[in-house]
Design a protein that fits this description.
Helix 1 packs parallel to helix 2 (about 45-55), helix 1 (about 10-25) crosses helix 10 (about 245-255) and helix 7 packs across helix 8. The chain has about 260 residues and is of the alpha/beta class. Strands 3-2-1-4-7-6-8 form a seven-stranded mixed β-sheet. It has ten helices and eleven strands.
């Protein structure tokens, strides 16, 4: 199973926790790709992560600094989202990333087998994902709800290269300012398949949830506010979300990366 993460050194903890949660529920061989730039994720982190994931797993880090700044998302460099989360749109320029790849945001935690997701039929699609929790109200169709959240994406890299999808998305991000740049570009340009919410649960964990995505959400009482709680913020997860099930993963991380 091929897993893709993107970001700079600031998301190392998130990537490690996410990858360890994938390992816990998916015993087969894992090939983990990490695309990085800016303050790059170093080889030392890759060595530690590969050791923590155990035999049969491989971690490969690609510094795309030059590639990224040769064709930057100019119109979207100053959004509230770090530009390096858009590195997934450069994956087609990394020859080593082939076939079917599962992209995960660094704040996605796995709770079960990903095999059914990884084996999803992509005959008519380049990517597959779950509708965005709030996207239908602002970007998509309220009735059809086809605007996908890009935090969990199954991608067919051969189709993406053949169609030039990521290149078209990079052009769109370079020329058009958008609130959620790469996510909006993918929704506009990709042939996509809608998946059940268990593969990217952006609200409270449900009985069938496989991937819990710790996205920003809104609370309305006693006042309207945006709330962001990430998997590495254990106390906030416990007290504000009532989530403790990832504590063993946090302990594994501490043993492997902080000892």
């Amino acid at each position: 199973m091929r897993i893709l993460y993107c970001g700079d050194a600031g998301v190392e903890t998130g990537i490690a926790l996410s990858a360890l949660s994938v390992r816990k529920h998916n015993p087969g061989e894992l090939e983990v790709f990490i695309l990085t730039a800016g303050q790059p994720i170093g080889s030392g982190f890759g060595i530690k992560l590969e050791k923590a994931l155990g035999s049969g797993s491989r971690v490969r880090i690609f510094n795309l600094e030059q590639v990224f700044f040769a064709d930057p998302p100019t119109a979207n460099m100053d959004t509230r989202f770090t530009p390096f989360c858009m590195l997934r749109l450069y994956a087609d320029l990394v020859p080593e990333i082939t076939g079917r790849v599962l992209y995960l945001d660094a704040d996605v935690m796995c709770r079960g087998s990903l095999s059914p997701l990884y084996e999803t039929d992509l005959t008519e699609a380049e990517i597959a994902g779950v509708p965005d929790r709030y996207g239908k109200w602002f970007f998509g169709n309220v009735l059809c709800h086809t605007y996908l959240n890009s935090g969990v994406l199954l991608m067919d890299m051969e189709k993406i290269r053949e169609s030039g999808l990521f290149g078209k998305c990079r052009t769109m991000c370079r020329e058009k300012k958008m609130f959620m740049p790469d996510q909006s570009a993918l929704n506009k340009l990709a042939r996509r398949k809608k998946l059940p919410r268990r593969w990217n649960e952006q609200a409270a964990i449900r009985p069938g949830t496989v991937c819990k995505h710790f996205t920003t959400f809104f609370r309305f009482f006693p006042r309207f506010r945006a709330v962001t709680i990430k998997p590495w913020q254990a106390e906030a997860m416990h007290t504000q979300l009532g989530i403790t099930e990832f504590d063993p993963i946090l302990e594994d991380y501490q043993r492997s990366f902080e000892s």
